[in-house]
Structure to design on (261 residues):
């Protein structure tokens, strides 16, 4: 059986977020067949929240230089072939496919506003101030602004490995951030504040349980997590254990760089 717009609205309304702004991450496939697809999901989200932002990242504008600063979680010069495929950033560049289909639908929505970061842009609806808070030196600032307004994270059929807000909390905890580079039409720009790796983030789930609301819609579980509470849980865990939330892959360059920082 497919999931209808009304199923989505009914399910999402149970989260009690009509007066709150949210940052959403979604896998539509996790729900099963949705009548009306991504547009229906976006409509249901707008119906059940005060406003919504999503990451609209564009990794294809990234370049890997031959040399650069040390302890940067990167092997310089290792992607010379990929550099040739890099596409210059412009404000209308589509969202990377690996972000899912929903952020691209949101970006193209008539009233959406998108920030201008060449790698880590965000788009939002009814959240212009939040989107406008981003800076080149503070790419995840919209997540901080969202928390200041009592925002929530929505994980729609996805887990914490895509929960970008955990990266914001890592920075709050003083964890090492990285530098990356992006190709613009006429030059290359340095992009500080690039976060670490998220493969190890699911271990946070039990500690977030008391700040999490949950509903099942179709085949998917939807979780809502209070953003400020999430920050506190992550910061406390990193203060207690500087290696908390890092992944176990021995070849992970960013987690390795954090361990040695
Ligand atoms: Zn890692």
């Amino acid at each position: 059986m497919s999931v209808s717009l009304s199923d989505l609205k009914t399910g999402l309304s149970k989260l009690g977020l009509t007066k709150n702004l949210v940052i959403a991450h979604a896998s539509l496939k996790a729900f099963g067949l949705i009548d009306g697809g991504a547009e229906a999901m976006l409509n249901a989200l707008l119906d059940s929240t005060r406003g919504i932002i999503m990451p609209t990242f564009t990794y294809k504008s990234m370049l890997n230089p031959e040399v650069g600063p040390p302890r940067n979680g990167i092997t310089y010069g290792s992607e010379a072939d990929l550099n040739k495929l890099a596409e210059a950033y412009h404000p209308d560049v589509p969202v990377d496919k690996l972000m899912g289909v929903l952020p691209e639908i949101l970006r193209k929505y008539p009233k959406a506003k998108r920030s201008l970061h060449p790698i880590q842009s965000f788009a939002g609806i009814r959240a212009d101030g939040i989107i406008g808070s981003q800076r080149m030196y503070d790419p995840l600032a919209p997540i901080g602004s969202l928390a200041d307004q009592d925002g929530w994270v929505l994980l729609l059929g996805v887990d914490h490995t895509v929960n970008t807000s955990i990266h914001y909390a890592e920075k709050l905890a003083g964890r090492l951030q990285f530098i990356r580079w992006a190709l613009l039409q006429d030059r290359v720009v340095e992009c500080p504040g690039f976060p670490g790796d998220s493969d190890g983030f699911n271990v946070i789930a039990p500690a977030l349980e008391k700040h999490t609301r949950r509903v099942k819609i179709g085949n998917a579980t939807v979780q809502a997590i209070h953003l400020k509470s999430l920050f506190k849980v992550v910061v406390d865990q990193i203060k207690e254990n500087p290696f908390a939330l890092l992944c176990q892959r021995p070849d992970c360059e960013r987690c390795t760089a954090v361990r040695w920082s």
About this structure: The chain has one domain: 5-259. Strands lie at 21-26, 51-55, 62-63, 113-114, 122-125, 152-156, 178-183, 188-194, 212-217, 220-226. The first helix runs from residue 5 to 13. The pocket of zinc ion is lined by residues 197, 199, 246-247, 249, 252, 254-255 (CB under 6 Å).
